[in-house]
Every structure is written in C-alpha cells, then in structure tokens.
TrEMBL record:
Alphabetized UniProt keyword annotations: Signal
CDD domains in alphabetical order: IPT
One Pfam family here: TIG
InterPro entries: Fibrocystin (IPR052387), Ig-like_fold (IPR013783), Ig_E-set (IPR014756), IPT_dom (IPR002909)
Location of the IPT/TIG domain: 201-270, 280-345
Protein name: IPT/TIG domain-containing protein
C-alpha cells in the first residue's frame, strides 16, 4: 500500500512540473488580502488594505485578545469595529452606548466597572464589542446586529449585519465583509485600547434661576445626540429636549415644575444637576391699601417654604415674612413704608414686581380724644386709644392678649380680630361664616360671639357660644391663627356660665376653666385635654366665678366673688389644686368702699394687675342705669404682699338716651375686659352702652379698647 502511495505522489509531481513548463496552462496563486466590501446607509463600500488599520490587543500569557479595525471611508467618514474577545463564532451586539454622539465624543457605558466603584462609569480595560460610524458631525453606535467571525491561522474574516439610528431616531443599516491578513501583525497591550466610554455628568445649567418658558442650556458629558435617549426630569416632571448633542442639551423651562434638581438618564446611567429655582410669580395681593403693621397676603407661584430664602419689599422697605409656602406669603407692612410696588425676590436674585399697594397713614382716633373720655384723679396715668368701637367690625365685647407676640385678640359680633399692639393695625381672622360663629338661627349679637379664648403658640383655644346651637353637640375649638382655620372639638356643649368667661391652657396640655352645671352646685372648676374631652371635675362647688388667671407652666388662679371684701382664689398647678384662699386683705389698698367691685384682673411676669371700680354715690356698680364709675388700678409685685395703688381715674364720657344723661364705662362683664402686656402696661375695654332688654346699642361707636400706662 505504501508503495502505491509513493508512486502516485511521484506521478503527480511529474505532472505538475510538466504543466509549469507550459506557459499557456499556468494558474494564478489565490492569496488572502486585507479589504472591506459592503454598504452603509445605502452607500457602497469597497476598501483596500491602505484604508484599513487593524490593531490587536493582548497581554502576556493571555490566550485570546481584542481587535480594533478602523476603516477610513470616503468624505472623512470612519467605520470602527471593536471585538472584545477575538475567536470564531457570532457576536450579538447590544446597545451599551448612546446611539448618536458628537463627532469626537465618547460613549457612555450602561453599567459601572466594579473596580472603579459604583459611581464611576468610565471603563479602563474591559470593553464590550461595539461598532461606531463617524459621519459629518456625529458618531453613531450600532444599537444591534451581528458580527460573524472566521479565523484561519493568522487571517481573519468578519461578516457584519448592523442596525444604527440617526438623530431623528430613524433606523439605517450596514452590511458587508472585511478581511484582515495577519491580524496580529500590529499587537499592543490591552492598556492601550482606545476607550470610547465617559461618565455621564451635568456640569452646569444656565440659567439656574428663571421663569417658565425660558430656554435653559445643560452642559456636561455622556449625553446622547438622539433627543429621545435623554430621559430628562425636573423632580417628578418629565421634560422633552428642544435639541441635544453629546455635551449640550437645550430645554424650555416647564410651566408645571417646581424648584428642584434636573436629572438626566441615558441608558440606565443617571446624573443630577445643581438646584434650579423658579423666579417667583405674583398672581394677586389681597389688599389694594393697608396701614403700617397690617398683614398682607401675597398669592402666586414658586415662592418657598423656607422664608429665609426670600425677600419681600414695598419700594425699598423690606417687609417681615410671617409665613411662607410655595404659593403664598404672609407679610407685615413695616414702619416707614410708602405707597409703592410689591417686590418678591429669592435672596441674591433679581426681584419680580407685583401690583401697587397704597399705604394708608396710621388710623386716626375714631372715638373721642382720650382727654374727653378719661379723667385722672391720682397717679401718673396716660391713655391711648387702641381700637374704638366705631371701627368697621362693630362693638368689641371680649378681649384676650398674646403677650409674647404683642398681639391682642378682640371679638365683635361679626369678627374675630387680631391687633398688632406696636402699630394698632387690625387683621380680620374670622367672620360670621366661620364655624366659631355659625349658629342654627343665623343670629349674631353680643350673645352669640365666641366666649373664652386662650392663645398657645399659633393656636387660639376657645369656646364657641352655645346660644342657638341646636343641632351641634360640641363648642370647643382650636383656631389656627396663621391659616385662619378652626377645628371644632369636644363631645358636648360646654356651658361657661353667666359671669366673665375664662380659660387657661397649661404646658401639661390640659385646659382649665369654670363650667356652669345646672341643675347642680353652679360653678365647677374642670379640666379637659386639648380635644375638649377627658373631662375632670377638680372642684364641684367653686363659688361665683370671676377670673381665670393663667400663670407660668401649668399654674393658674381661679378667682371667685365680685367684691374685694369677699375675694378669694383657688391656686392650681395642673390638676392639683388648693382650697380657697382669701385675697381681700391684699386687695384692701385699692378698695374705695365695701361696694368696690373687681372689674378686671390679669397676670404677667410674676405680677398681678387689677382694676376695681365703685360708683361712690352709692349707686349699684352692676346696674344698667350706667352711673359714673371711679376706678383704681393696682399691682401686686412678684405675686406677694399687698396690691399697690398705681392710680385712680374716672370715665367722664357721657351719652344721652331718652333725654337722660348716662356714663360710658368699663363694667363687670360676661367677657374678659382687662389684660396686661409684657411691658406691664394694661388695656381696658369700655363696652358700648346697650339696652338690657332689647340689646340695642344706646350710643353706637362709644367705648373701645384703651391702653393705660403708669
């Protein structure tokens, strides 16, 4: 057998040698050559080795390597193939770079390299297979397709079938074959791989403060020039780009957005900008004119919940911001303010201008001059009108003070008012439409207005008058002063009785008040939780209640009896109370006679203040015949010892009714009529005279709130 094979081989060699001797029968030798043939985006490709640059990347001791083949196309275009692991078979491409980038831009990897940490999207050694096409100003990365690889010794054949997207998002294709002879001829270490990856980042946004509809430019790295691949958000609001390149995106600032950071997501990677703030928008101002010290409500868009970040001015005068939200600002008109435009600005930014506000000069005295009302008998007393009963809201029947805020609350039959005691500016907090006034018969007079009030922080605790409350079962309330909203509370109607109403809210979150129990012992001293439930009776027979004096913490005094001669009190600290303690001896220095009545009492800064009155001519102080009254003002320092008489005065203002002359007065009242502020000045309410049977005002506009300094 071997002999036959040897003979056959010799015969074959002889035959071939005879053919070479015959020029007419010579065959060309088929040599493997580097070239590229195919098409891209309907353009034919036919390249020779001169236009093709292969580079093989392999480190020592590696069995396989990576290959980059760059083909220089006509018109300065390029087509680059990168195969991360060169071996026979088929590579299925997936999109890991943006479909369209700038001409010299890098791509953006979908995932991070663990060796670089989760926040570093740049890859340095391990790259996926990709194909990119440079044409004009853009770089296109294949979004899908296959690379069929054939290796024959040192020779390589790759058949490609790819899909790209253009800037408008339309697909275009590329197919073909390239061959590389001796593909390892130009070998380099993997560290020299031309890495097209870059970190997605937003370097700047311009402007970072502006109005809706303004064009904003976002600059950075790793963007996609295909707009649809840039997923843009402002907080939770999706935004469509106007234009995009690999390093710059333009958008129109959206109408429905709010302050926040822009985020950009490209192929799963996300970058975030610095803060963007909208310029404020003023839509309305609740007043066309106002006085110094009054509050103003500015409504609009793009304000801030942090008032320290905003500035509001009228002209060049800065206004105090009392409360702030994204859509409203409550501000106070400052001293020295002049009529002008309202301006709102974010600190450090240009302001936006609203409508003009007319500044009304501080309200002139509405009632009589004080020297025609008061007559000083002794002491260094001075008087100042705070709010006359001639005001637009009607006669004042009940007052309370928040000494820390220097604000007084005044109650009329039509409105709950707050008065800034530094300017006497009045703000209407609630009217007859409010739940704290509303009754089933829609009757509003001195018998239906809110009863006791007590301020605690931003809340006024109080009792709605139960008169004409037929269908309602609760009359306790919390009134939010900032939002001007009430919350009705409790589980029954609380009857605070027929004498001066009082209430105290302790730091222990309990409410203390007198409650009239009928039938029964009359007045009881009770406590409730802040929801006006969990009622506790602390004293069942608390006598003829007169005043509830709130002190520090959870301390209070419950004062009983009208005349100084039988005045007494219960000392309370939370739910722990004393027996009745006589107060008459300490009050003697301000007593005129045995008929001297207690008109008002208050407590401030460890001191007790008292206003007492008598008719001197023997007339009944509580009589509805309106006799002339004389008043002593007293103070007990540090809550001990005798009261010191600070001054005596009378009220000489008169009114005529049915041909008879009567006197205006501050009388013992079913409501609180005397308070002291943090400076030790006191305020007294002179009630407007009214007919006891009909409720008719006998001298409309007479009386009001007056400040007494001593």
């Amino acid at each position: 057998m071997k002999r036959h094979l040897l003979v056959s081989s010799i015969l074959a060699m002889l035959f071939l040698g005879s053919c070479e001797d015959d020029p007419g029968s010579q065959q060309p030798i088929n040599k493997f050559q580097t070239d590229l043939k195919g098409e891209i985006n309907s353009n034919s490709l036919d390249l020779t080795a001169n236009s093709i640059v292969p580079v093989f990347f392999q480190d020592e001791n590696e069995s396989t390597g990576a290959l980059e083949v760059t083909a220089q196309l006509p018109n300065s275009e390029k087509l680059t193939f990168f195969i991360d692991e060169l071996k026979p078979g088929t590579v299925n491409l997936t999109q890991v770079f943006p479909a369209v980038m700038g001409f010299s831009s890098d791509g953006l990897r979908l995932e991070a390299n663990e060796s670089n940490g989760p926040d570093n999207k740049r890859m340095t050694a391990s790259l996926p297979s990709f194909v990119k096409y440079l044409s004009g100003e853009n770089t296109y990365f294949a979004i899908s397709g296959t690379l069929e690889i054939k290796v024959d010794g040192a020779n390589l054949t790759v058949i490609w079938d790819l899909i790209f997207k253009d800037k408008e998002g339309n697909n275009f294709t590329s197919k073909g074959t390239f061959k590389v002879a001796d593909y390892k001829k130009n070998t380099k270490p993997r560290s020299q791989i031309n890495n097209p990856t870059s970190t997605l980042s937003i370097v700047s946004i311009t402007p970072d403060y502006g109005s809706a509809g303004t064009e904003l430019t976002m600059k950075g790295t790793g963007f996609s020039a295909l707009k649809a691949e840039n997923k843009l958000m402002l907080n939770d609001l999706a935004i469509e780009a106007i234009s995009a390149t690999a390093t710059e995106i333009k958008i129109s600032i959206p109408e429905a957005g709010e302050h926040g950071k822009y985020s950009l997501t490209v192929l799963g990677a996300t970058a975030e900008s610095g803060m963007f703030y909208y310029a404020p928008v003023i839509t309305s101002i609740n007043k066309e004119s106002a006085k110094v010290g009054e509050e103003l409500l500015i409504t609009g868009l793009h304000f801030d919940t942090d008032k320290s970040l905003l500035e509001v001015k009228i002209g060049d005068k800065q206004m105090e911001i009392i409360a702030a939200s994204l859509t409203s600002l409550t501000v106070k008109i400052p001293e020295g303010a002049k009529t002008g435009k309202i301006n709102v600005a974010r600190i450090g930014k240009a302001p936006v201008q609203g409508s003009e506000l007319q500044i009304v000069e501080k309200q002139a005295t509405q009632g009589l001059p004080v020297d025609q009302i008061f007559e000083v008998v002794s002491g260094n007393l001075s008087f100042e009108e705070v709010l006359s009963n001639a005001n637009e809201y009607g006669a004042i029947w009940n007052i309370q003070i928040d000494a820390e805020k220097n604000v007084m609350y005044a109650v009329t039959a039509s409105a709950l008012l707050s008065i800034d005691l530094s300017t006497n500016a009045v703000t209407n907090l609630a009217g007859q439409e409010s739940a704290i006034y509303k009754n089933d018969l829609n009757l509003y007079n001195l018998l239906t207005l809110p009863m006791a009030l007590y301020p605690k922080g931003e809340v006024l605790y109080g009792l709605k008058n139960h008169t004409f409350m037929i269908s309602e079962v609760k009359n306790g309330f919390r009134f939010n002063v900032s939002t001007k909203t009430p919350e009705m509370l409790g589980d029954h109607k609380i009857n605070n009785g027929a004498d001066p109403y009082g209430m105290f809210v302790g730091d222990n979150n309990r409410i203390y008040m007198p409650e009239f129990i009928s039938p029964g012992p009359g007045y009881a001293l009770v406590s409730y939780n802040l929801d006006f439930t969990d009622r506790k009776i602390l004293h069942e027979d608390a006598g003829n209640f007169t005043f509830m004096l709130g002190m520090e913490g959870s301390k209070f005094r419950y004062v009983s009896k009208r005349t100084i001669n039988d005045a007494k009190y219960i000392e309370g600290n939370g739910d722990n109370i004393s027996d009745f303690i006589s107060w008459k001896d300490q009050l003697k220095p301000i007593e005129f006679d045995t008929y001297t009545r207690l008109i008002g009492m208050d407590y401030r800064n460890s001191n007790f203040y008292v206003l007492a009155a008598t008719a001197k001519d023997g007339a009944n102080v509580g009589s509805t015949s309106y006799p002339k009254l004389h008043y002593n003002l007293g103070k007990q320092t540090n809550g001990s010892g005798n009261f010191q008489k600070m001054g005596e005065f009378s009220i000489k203002q008169t009114f005529e009714f049915n041909g008879t002359t009567y006197y205006v007065r501050s009388q013992e009242s079913a409501y609180k009529s005397f308070v002291a502020d943090k400076n030790g000045d006191v305020y007294v309410l002179l009630q407007t005279p009214f007919h006891p049977s009909t409720g008719e005002e006998l001298a409309p506009g007479a009386g009001g709130i007056y400040k007494i300094k001593f």
